[in-house]
């Protein structure tokens, strides 16, 4: 029987734990506060930002909202970040990506204090992850580790094949899997024999950003499949990188889209906000 990994339920469980943690922190006189910066009015970004604020409200994290106009200059954004870096009442700073073309996202990421970098994108935090030191970890891969652990899936010794090597998903995912003692293979658009390599996976993580690309030909019977992709299909329904209906009967466990990896990303962001207070 295939286990459908319920990311919505697991994320809710984590948010309830965080609510208690935030309460304890408040009793100890420490309030968790996250500054959320959005530049422009990209509708998808607005949905993400609103979901993050909603999660903050549920857990009891104060969210400070900065909605900047589309024509904000890089210097103006950097000045705001500098101000928030210095503000002792702000624990976490999040700049919603993508940014308008006049702003260099790398410079913005580097400007955020590594101690407030709750997205885990700053090179200092990425470096810490690489050498196994504690620091903020990119939320989507951190959420996948929680999904696996809380679903009773053994990572240690498993062969994990990751499709995708982006800085926010594929690469940190590989480092986290190594930390958990998996044997890791990272694949990308130049990989030869992708199907054969994927079929060797005990845990297959699809983060290539191509709708329903992964068919049953890529999956070994009984493998665990984690689908990171988010897309709209021809009927405007959400779908992932995996052809779910075809693949799921061949797996021992699989994440659906929606309701799999997605809800975990915000839950892990909230985790990083709480961690930021404890740093
Ligand atoms: P990305 O930056 O576009 O990276 C995609 C990666 O996949 C690249 O490394 C690329 O290889 C590789 N790739 C592309 N086509 C491939 C192919 N045919 N075969 C093998 N590898 C291929 O994407 P991302 O930011 O990592 O995101 C991946 C997906 O996850 C997207 O659908 C995104 O929307 C979704 N996502 C979801 C969440 C969530 O919370 N659920 C969070 C983040 C992202 P090269 O490096 O060679 O170009």
What does this 3D model show about the protein?
By secondary structure, the chain is α/β, with parallel strands linked by helices. It has helices at residues 7-27, 43-59, 74-86, 105-111, 123-131, 139-150, 170-179, 194-198, 244-247, 262-278; strands at 3-4, 33-39, 62-68, 92-95, 159-163, 183-187, 203-206, 223-227, 231-232, 238-239, 251-254. Strands 1-11-8-7-5-6 form a six-stranded parallel sheet. The chain has a three-stranded parallel sheet with strand order 3-2-4, with helices on both faces. The longest helix is centred in the N-terminal third of the chain and has 21 residues, at 7-27. The chain is globular. The protein starts with a strand and ends with a helix. The model has no long low-confidence stretch (mean pLDDT 97). The site of NADP nicotinamide-adenine-dinucleotide phosphate (NAP) has 24 residues, from helix 10.
Please supply descriptive tags for the structure shown above.
three-stranded parallel beta sheet, single chain, 17% strand, alpha/beta, 41% helix, 11 strands, six-stranded parallel beta sheet, 279 residues, binds NADP nicotinamide-adenine-dinucleotide phosphate
Describe the structure concisely.
The protein is an alpha/beta fold and 279 residues long. The protein has ten helices and eleven strands. The protein has helices at 7-27, 43-59, 74-86, 105-111, 123-131, 139-150, 170-179, 194-198, 244-247, 262-278; strands at 3-4, 33-39, 62-68, 92-95, 159-163, 183-187, 203-206, 223-227, 231-232, 238-239, 251-254.
